[in-house]
Amino acid sequence: MLANKLGPGQKLPSIRELSVTMGASISTLSGALEELEKASVISRQQGKGIFVLPPRLRSVWLLCDSKFFASGHSPFWDVLVEQARVRALVHNERLSLHFTLPFEDSEEDSESALHHALAREIEEGRVHGIIGVGLNRKIAHWIMDQGVAYTSFAGWAPYSIRLHDEEIVRQGVKTLVAQGCRRLGLWQNARPVYDKNGVEIAEWRDLTDDFQIALREHGLEMDESLAKTNAEQALLLSHSLAVESSQQQGYRSVMEVFKRDRSEWPDGIIVIEDMMTQGVLAAMSSLGIRPGVDVQIVTHANKGTTTFLGDPQGLIRIEYDPAEVVQRLFDILTALMNREIPAGVQPYCLDTQVLLIEPHLVLPDENQF
Asked: How do strand 58-64 and strand 93-99 relate by DSSP bridges?
């Protein structure tokens, strides 16, 4: 966008000059300039010209579904919020954090999921951009219908980011096989998520099929008894009923699998969520099982958090960087607030484009505590 390139206080070419250089009609440009003036991007001054205005203080929200943390709070969110706060400060934005009210996706209006004072701020144009965390499609559409730029994490949006969790499975299997493991397990915790159509589904993104494909690429077959999806907990969660925490799900998974004869134990496990791994480590400690010796563990992790501080050094991590997650979310949101198409997104389904966040393998001797 020319105004962004020139910077505050700079004078734009005249509308006739713009018409020639851009190959657009004067009427089309007049309409575009009118919209930019309404958005406080430019100022048209009679007899002087068109000038770029200083960026206004934008109000940006992190808006989280109240059910999203039902199965446990990860330090990832503390880092994410802090990174968002620093990023907003640098870019002259006013950041605030809000939660939806308890809300069932039924016949009620979507704005009833928000406190009436928050809904009014959105309706009256005092909010310029919202990053939704775990919000469903109905709420997202209501926000966008009010003219507010919107993107999401773990929920639906026309443009959003997505963690490439399939890569955890692929890298995890490859790494464990390289360590000589042959009986592999995949353990997933229950979380509320939405499918490609924005409909809430019972299970966290099920990676079992990806696990089976990765095993076959290395000449291995899947033992279904070692693929723990915690589907029953996910079903309870989808009905807003009490569920085990991620740590409890990990603890129980160890007790169920390692109570068998040692010949039936897995020699390698991939755990898709770091808080579940905390429960796994606690259970193994109680049973005298040594991670990195008796069984190799590959776990999802988040760079810069203290989730595994002081835990066994044999842990193989596949990390996401919360700073990168925040940066990409705000890249998308900033583009939308500037009425631009976000860069780097790719089609995911019919009405959604995503920017994939890739994880990075960290071997035990590379772990930083």
From this structure: parallel
- Distance from CA of residue 305 to its chain's centroid? 16
Helix axes 15-22, 26-38, angle to 10 degrees: 120
- Give the CA distances from residue 331 to residues 88, 248, 302, 347, in Å, rounded to whole numbers and listed in that order: 12, 36, 20, 17
User: Could you give the C-alpha distances from 90 to 62, 81, 87, 221, 342, in angstroms and in order?
Assistant: 17, 14, 5, 51, 20
Buried b / exposed e across 172-198, counting CB within 10 Å, b at 16+?
Answer: bbebbbeeebebbbbbbbbbbbbeeeb
**CA–CA distance, 313 with 369 (Å, rounded to integer):** 10
Sign of the C-alpha dihedral computed for residues 135, 138, 143 and 147 taken in this order: positive
Could you count the other beta carbons within 10 Å of the beta carbon of residue 171?
19
The per-residue pLDDT for range 281-304, each reduced to its tens digit, is 999 999 999 999 999 999 999 988
The two three-digit tokens of residue 4, written as one number: 């962004």
Three-state DSSP at 120 gives helix
167 and 214 in contact (C-beta within 8 Å)? no
Are 270 and 212 a contacting pair, CB within 8 Å?
Answer: no
Is the overall model pTM greater than 0.85, yes or no? Answer: no
pLDDT average, residue stretch 34-44:
76
Most confidently predicted of 192-206, 255-269, 299-313: 255-269
Domains and CATH numbers, the chain: 2-52 (1.10.10.10), 58-162+324-359 (3.40.50.2300), 164-320+361-366 (3.40.50.2300)
**How far apart (Å, rounded) are the C-alpha atoms in residues 247 and 208?**
20
Q: What backbone phi and psi angles, to 5 degrees, belong to 214?
A: -65, -40
Report the alpha-carbon distance of residue 343 to residue 284 in Å, rounded. Answer: 45
Q: Is 45 exposed, middle or buried (0-12, 13-18, 19+ CB in 10 A)?
A: exposed
